[in-house]
Amino acid sequence: MGCLKNAHSEQSIVLRSHHIVGRHPDSSHTVMANATVSRCHCLLEWQADAWYIQDISANGTFINGKRVAKNIKHPLSLSDQIQFGDPSSEAWQVTNLTKPSAFFMALDGHNSDIEVGQYSCLIKDEQHDVIVSQTLSGQWLLEKEGHVEALMHQQRIELNGTSYLFIAPDELGATQTCSFNENADVCLDLTVSQNEEHVGLVANVNGHVFDLGDRTHHYLVLLLARKYLEDQSAQVAETEQGWVDKSLLIKDSGMEESHINTQFYRFRKKLLEAAKGLNLNVDIIERRRGEVRINCDQVTIQTVKVA
Fold first, then answer.
1. pTM for the whole thing?
2. Are residues 100 and 2 in contact, defined by beta-carbon separation less than 8 angstroms?
3. What kind and span of H or E run contains 224?
4. Do 242 and 231 meet the contact criterion of CB atoms below 8 Å apart?
């Protein structure tokens, strides 16, 4: 994603694929209050796998102290210093030049925008962690307090007392559809050391094997897997198998809820990244109010000796 950072205030803005900087709030994505800035001052645009800037102003746009030619697209480079309307005005440094991705745009003009990764993002809210994730069909989801809802382009939400607008890349509009298998067969094979300090995990997704290695967040998956197998053995109804109360998970893991959310976020992200080439939905962590579980086709747990 393209990003600019104010060298003085350290405010960061994330660029849309077609991003206008100017003085007029109705026509600009980023508003500059300086009198030397035109109503529509310049355009920053993602084109042919690169970011370009085009000056369309009266007083000019300056890159590294030099005024750029008007109405001509100029390629941007990392660490470029951009000034709008006046070479003595506050500079904005180019800090990222990757392709456009989703983000939350701060509406107060002071707080920084919040970047969202390609597939998911964990945001620390004052009261509850907020998880933003994207299905392989392109639909964005917002998860808060165990409730999951569709997150739409230009939807307004409150985070840490600030209003934000969710901005999705142009190529991921709300009407986009993509054919993928909703019912991917996911089997987990966990290996755990006798002292339970090491938990390895191998995931089999529709016959494709992914070794996710030995990770700290696999311990939480182990706890959920044990409950899943316990309920399965007790012939609990499939819809109720594996649900674990959060308070019990906090007690058994010794982790705070925010840490648990972070660990699950990391697991979901790793599994999704591993299987992204298969065009399958592999998010097996499910939540409902106060509870969490894994929902997969098969789980095996094996205790091993660590040399």
1. 0.52
2. yes
3. helix 218-233
4. yes
